[in-house]
Amino acid sequence: MIANTRHLRLSLFMTCVVFLGGTGRFGQASQAPSSDSNSDQDQPTATFKTGVDIVQLFFNVKDKKGGLIPNLTRTDFEVLEDGRPQTIKYFAAESNLPLTLGILIDASASQERVLEMEKITGGSFLSEILRDKDLAFVLSFDVNVDLLQDFTSSVSELKHALNRAKINSGGGGGGIPGLGGGPVPTVANNPRGTLLYDAVYLAAHDELSQQVGRKAMILLTDGQDQGSQLRVKDAIEAAQKADSICYVLLIADRGFGYSGEGEMKKLSAETGGRVINVGNNEKKLKEAFDQIAAELRSQYNLGYTPTNNKKDGSFRKVEIKPKGDYKVQARAGYYARAHEEQ
Questions:
Q1: pLDDT of residue 53
Q2: Which string of DSSP letters, residue by residue, matches 223-245?
Q3: Which of 1, 244, 285, 316 qualifies as a FRET site for 233, CA 20 to 30 Å off?
Q4: 252: closest CA among 91, 32, 105?
Q5: What is the pLDDT of residues 78-136, one digit of tens each?
Q6: How far apart are alpha carbons 322 and 75 in whole angstroms?
Q7: How many Cβ atoms sit within 10 Å of the Cβ of residue 20?
Q8: Whether the Cβ atoms of residue 157 and residue 199 lie closer than 8 Å to each other
Q9: Range with the lowest mean pLDDT among 24-28, 146-150, 183-187, 194-198?
């Protein structure tokens, strides 16, 4: 049975985010993994939320040409937090932990002639990447932010959700139903058009922050925001607090540029993802999805107990330094939040 589309809205009067039309699937915070074993492959049996005693990082390692480097061990890395060396408590050369994935699809006017190929290629990607214990959701954004499918492991339901995405440039003026049934208020002189930053915030805060383990979101967009209540820094912070990697596939119909490419590069770099420019080329889009699938399957996973044990809500910069001539693709840091803030 096909689920009804749900609208997500940012509350005008509250600092929290309201999820209209029901709740998603919420994960339970788990215990920090044991660090008793000294094996390079001592993978944790459970995952955690940032803010407990262990900081967990998923990352890729690449050579100068961008090729993925396998078979490294913990002795090949040094971890620094705010410039101070940290002791790696556990390390895994590959991650078999379940994946939670969000597909965020731009349904604004710039996508009119590429939306169908996004649906087809995106559906094929989901068929390839998702395994039994994995979960995914689909969200579209234009003048609204719509949750087309909440968390499910059903590829069929996810494909149906992608197929329900439709171009909406705002001409109909439908508005998002809220507490008063009206549209989301916008900043003066900033009319609604493509609520990209709001969509990333809502995907991170309302969906991914409630889950544990490996998390990523993939944005299919031209990168241009118009009308969001939030700014790109708010979207980045929400993704970081949700421990989510952000990949951005820059895609648009011919004639549309990428005025937001710089912001998308910042979003992806700060969260451990990257930007891939595919234009309106179906072959490049498939190749981009293949690259993301390979990266998600080739992640290293390490954990450490921070020497700074204060839970003061501050952002801690983390650097994973390889001892070889490699490049590490990882998030820039995390927020040291108290348990009740999780």
A1: 80
A2: S--BS-SS-HHHHHHHHHHTT-E
A3: 285
A4: 105
A5: 999 999 999 999 999 876 789 999 999 999 988 999 999 999 999 999 999 999 999 99
A6: 9
A7: 13
A8: no
A9: 24-28
Cβ neighbours of 4 (radius 10 Å):
10
Q: Which residues lie across from 136 on neighbouring strands?
A: 101, 152
Burial zone of 66 (CB within 10 Å; 0-12 exposed, 13-18 middle, 19+ buried): exposed
Q: In this structure, what DSSP letter does residue 74 have?
A: G
Closest CA relative to residue 58, chosen from 301, 329, 296: 301
Please tell me the distance from the alpha carbon of residue 177 to that of residue 238, in angstroms, as a whole number. Answer: 24
Give the relative orientation of helices 155-163 and 115-129 as an angle to the nearest 10 degrees.
Answer: 170
Give this prediction's pTM. 0.82
In the chain, beta strands by DSSP E: 6-10, 17-19, 55-62, 77-81, 84-86, 88-92, 99-106, 135-141, 145-152, 214-221, 245-251, 275-279, 300-304, 315-322, 327-329, 333-335
Which pLDDT band, with edges at 50, 70 and 90, does 282 fall under? very high
